[in-house]
Amino acid sequence: MNSILICPTCAAKLNFHESSSGYYCDNKHHIDKNSQGYWSFVTSTKFKGSSDTRQQLRSKRFLMTSGIFSPLVEQLSAAFNLAVKDKTHVNHLNYQCADGFYLRALVQGTDNSSVTHWGVSEAENALFAASKDSTPANLLLSPFKKLPFANESLDVITLFDAQLKGKECLRTLKKDGVLLLLVPAPRHLWQLKQKVYENLSEKPQQLNLPKDVELVSSMPITFAADVTGEQAITLLDMNNLSWRINDELKHDIKQKTIEALEFDYLLLTAKVK
């Protein structure tokens, strides 16, 4: 059976062997599904990838599944359903899928049963966690600079809680494909940031989209939630802010609940120019 994947060694089209759940090309290169539940498309011994500690993964999982993000998930699912409405044989990539939380949410909330879901990450332990949580998607370990997808083979690419950089991701999106990006807005985690920065002031939104991307629409997603001190520390870590706090401030944040913490996002719908 043919696939939209290409060989990481020779770039030839890959075929899928159902009985072994492996991929192979006509040049006899093979990629087998490993015991941890994903396929590795890494060919370089110098590839280091990225990873969180076991504690970081556990903390993020507890936070994401706590229900705090339910308003966000509802809006993301609605936007995804709109992107795949009335389409058949849809290929969806969750780029930088982490432990698969958003993938599981989108699969559970979709109305379109003809969607094939893919998740790609550079973090082996995150993919293992995604597989362990029975994420209903094809999980791939791959360098982001060399994705194993054919040109213009994907109908929808979702990118949440991460930046879109370079052209490699865009190479794989069809000309009529949809790009869904979730980016933080100015007041995201405002009360928490006030503890980190002195004289914090609200700044205008800057999207910083690649020049090859055309914005179709944007939708604000805002809600508030009470978070524990431990959850606040995890949020700082997830938003690359934990390095800015010293041990004393970290201890202080851990001890107190933050009431009505603002979550402020923009959901962008875009396409390739």
Brief descriptors of the model:
273 residues, alpha/beta, Rossmann fold, eight-stranded mixed sheet, four-stranded antiparallel sheet, 8 helices, 30% strand, globular
Give structural notes.
The protein has 273 residues and is of the alpha/beta class. The chain folds into 2 domains: 1-32, no CATH class; 33-199 and 206-272, 3-Layer(aba) Sandwich (Rossmann fold), CATH 3.40.50. The protein is 27% helix and 30% strand. It contains 8 helices and 12 strands. It has helices at 54-64, 70-84, 101-109, 124-132, 168-171, 190-196, 229-238, 247-254, and strands at residues 2-6, 13-17, 22-24, 30-31, 39-40, 90-95, 115-121, 138-141, 154-160, 173-184, 213-227, 258-272. Strand 3 (22-24) and strand 4 (30-31) form a beta hairpin.
Provide the structure class.
alpha/beta
- The total strand number stands at 12
Termini distance? Answer: 32 Å
What is the mean pLDDT?
Answer: 94
The portion of residues forming beta strands comes to 25-35%
Shape, principal axes of CA atoms: globular
Please describe the biggest sheet, giving its number of strands, its sense, and whether it closes into a barrel.
8 strands, mixed
CATH architecture of the largest domain: 3-Layer(aba) Sandwich
Strand order of the largest sheet: 5-8-7-6-9-10-12-11
What's the CATH class label of the largest domain?
Alpha Beta
User: How many separate structural domains?
Assistant: 2
Series of H and E elements: EEEEEHHEHEHEEHEHEHHE
Radius of gyration (CA) equals: 19 Å
* Number of discrete helical segments: 8
CATH third-tier fold name of the largest domain: Rossmann fold
CATH superfamily of the largest domain: Vaccinia Virus protein VP39
* Percent helix: 25-40%
